[in-house]
Amino acid sequence: MRTEAPQPWVNWHFFAEFLEVTGLFARWVEGCPLPYTSPNAPAVVDLLGTWLLSIFDGQRRYAHIAGLWGDEVAPEILGMSKIVSDESLRRALSALAPGLLKRCDEAQRATRLAQLVKSTSWMDTALSESTGEALNTAAWILDADSSVKLSYGHQTGAEISYNPRKPGRPSHTLHTYWISNVRLVLEVEVQSGKSHAAKHSLPRLRQLIEGPAAEKRPALVRGDSAFGNEVVMAEMEEIDQHEQSRSPITGGVGMFAWHTPKHIWKRLPVVLCYLTGLPA
Questions:
Q1: How far is CA 244 from the centre of its chain?
Q2: d(Cα 225, Cα 253) in Å, to the nearest integer?
Q3: Is 73 exposed, middle or buried (0-12, 13-18, 19+ CB in 10 A)?
Q4: Tally of structural domains, the chain
């Protein structure tokens, strides 16, 4: 029985050809708002290319970038001159998304916020180019969910809160929104460990629903039992959006499910499609 992880580089040349034909990587590099002005600073294509190759290789820590230094083929395909160091990439990402320090004056805070807005708009534009065509799918479903990401060391936003895997350790909360029909991710929000409730997903969820044109909006928004509360349902009703959430199995719900005849459950998908307007 094979236990080793699959090798991602086997399919790298296909993915690189896709990036070249579509121009996604070139536009991503061209629109990067990295505020570097020094002639000695690394090139933007080298920074973003190293970041892309590291992610494609399945690396999870900056120090793992050293494993890419011996590769001369992959950087050349992306038009890079070299693989940058992990420190260079860490500083570049910190410049792209600067944190809001507790002790800084108003001018510094405004500058950091402006840079954060530019970087967010840049990444949103790049992501929308990958998912925009999928929104033309008839009656697509938007799934929303939150998960706990365990954090090690000192990371901004990591807080001790609900953590089922390792209670007592700091974590982040990942609020993910994706197109259910084709499993394409629309957005992933990284929030503090204490922001795991559904109400923290509402602002961005509402933007994703109201952003596209009316004909490209989702036919249904789905979530787990955390989204089945009055606040979320009221927000969805306000923007005239169909919403379906999983009901928590309380005593009354369990008794209802136990005593409901089987032929009723067989007709339930048809009833849901009728109520939501989706094709059966």
A1: 21
A2: 13
A3: exposed
A4: 3
pLDDT tens by residue, 100-159: 777 778 888 888 889 889 998 898 888 888 887 778 777 788 888 888 888 877 777 788
Same domain? For 76 and 148 the reply is no
Is position 110 within any domain?
no
Residue with tokens 């009354």: 252
Domain containing 235 equals 137-248
The model carries a pTM of 0.72
Residues 141, 278: Cα–Cα separation, whole Å: 10
d(CA 98, CA 10): 35
Query: Are residues 261 and 241 both part of a single domain?
Result: no
Q: CA nearest 96: which of 76, 69, 75, 114?
A: 114
β-strand 220-223 against 243-245: which pairing, if any? parallel
